[in-house]
Amino acid sequence: MIEQLLQDHGLGWYQADSARTQAVMVAERIAGQLQQAIEERGEASLALSGGRGPELFLRQLEQSGLDWSKVTIMLVDERWVPAEDEQSNAGLLLRCMPGALQQARWIPMYRGEGLQADADTMDRMLRALLPLDVLVLGMGKDGHTASLFPFLPELAGYLDPAQERLCVAVPPEGGRLPRLSMTARAIDSAGTRLLVLAGEEKRRTLVSAWQEQDPLRMPIKAFLKPPMDIYYSPDGALEN
Ligand SMILES: O=C1O[C@H](COP(=O)(O)O)[C@@H](O)[C@H](O)[C@H]1O
Questions:
Q1: pTM for the full model?
Q2: Whose CA, among 18, 33, 97, 189, lies 20 to 30 Å from 151?
Q3: Residue whose CA is at the smallest distance from ligand 1 atom 9
Q4: For this protein, what is the EC number (predicted)?
């Protein structure tokens, strides 16, 4: 069983019986960790992924009652499109947790200054923010995470913990939009790292990634190490 294997290697496995329960579990965990950071340091940072997976827990998180004015919120990755575009990860956050984003210090990745210029700006800002408190990853069915796709040129460098860059520009390829992505060095800085997955197909991808030796084939593999807590629901209500 994948959950046993992961636990044997020090990763956490939290299975919910429904997408709703999963959303409550994830939101409570994020809010709890942020609250702890606020109590310890007076502030906290949160990096969120996009895609279809986060919607329910983002809406739940919005209701958490946290003092968002003490939280910096950013994205792990973004399509290089304005927030009004339906594919924008910023747009997802603005729709699902508008109150939190209004109160928090919100740092969008897309600024419309050019792909490389926006990556450089985010890279610079991240230098002042690391280490992050809480970071949430998703995973595509091809094993990508953030905007780190299988066999991306320079992927080996982006996954290298010694990589200089914290945020990189990912040029368009095939039908894929240009993107911005945190590198492993930024992702690995987070004290609390969560992976949120739903549906049997994502579970099968996770099993393949665990068995895969080469993270260039399935980049999520590079992050399947402690500290990492995986929240899974077999109910893939929002599965795509
Ligand atoms: O492209 C992306 O995909 C992953 C997974 O998204 P999902 O729709 O399969 O949940 C996501 O984590 C990432 O932020 C997003 O840009």
A1: 0.97
A2: 189
A3: 140
A4: 3.1.1.31
